[in-house]
Amino acid sequence: MKPLKKVFKPFTLINKRYLAEFFGTAILLAVITGSGLMGQILSVNNDGIILLGNSIATGAALYVLISLLGPISGAHFNPLVTFMAKLNKQFKQKLVLGYISAQVMGAITGVWFTHAMFSLPILQTSEKLRTGYGIWFSEFISSLILLSVIYLGQKQFKKNLAMMIALSVTAGYWFTSSTFFANPAVTIARSLTNTFVGIAPQHVFAFLFAQFLALFVISFFLKKNKV
What we know:
Shape: globular
Number of helices: 8
Strand content: under 5%
Largest sheet: none
Structural class: mainly alpha
Mean pLDDT: 93
CATH architecture: Up-down Bundle
Number of strands: 0
Helix content: over 70%
CATH topology: Glycerol uptake facilitator protein
C-alpha cells in the first residue's frame, strides 16, 4: 500500500490551487473596490483622480498576485482565462468548475471584506449605469486584448507575463469606455458594491456576453490558425 501522504497528495495540490484562486481573486477585488473607495474619500469625488488611483493599485496588485500565486494555481483569477487554458489543452477538465467557483466566491468575498473595512453595509447592489453599444463593444475589445496578451505572453515572454498583464490592465482602465472589466467573476462581484467601481446588476449580462464572445472569437482564431 502507498503511504497515506502519497495517496492524499493530489487532493492537497488541488485544494492549494482552489485556495490560491479564491484568495487571489478576493485580494484583487478588495484592491479594486478599496482603492476606488479611498479615491472617492481623498479626492472628494474627482473621477479622474479616482480612476488614476484605481488603475495603479489594480495593476500593482495584479503583478504581485500573479508573481506569488502563479506557481501554485497559474493565477487565473478569471473564468475566461480558465476556459481558454482548458480549450488550449493546458488545463484539466476536472479542475474547471472548482476554479470558477473559487474565483466567483473569492471576488464576492473581497468586495464584502472591503465594505467591512470601510464601515459600509456588507450587502448592497450597485446603482452605477454601464450600458450602451459603445461600452459593450469596449468590453469585448478589452477581453480580446487581455486574452491575447496572456496567450502570446505565455508562448513568447513567460518571464514577463505578470508585468505584461498588470500593465495591460492599468492601461485598459484609461483607453476603454468600460474601464476594462474583462472578467466575469469581477463583473458579478462589482454588481454587489454601490461604489465607484460598481455596475448595476441589470447590466451584468451584457458585459458577460461581450466577455464570452471575445473568448469564443479568440479560441476560434487560435484553433483555426494554430498560432
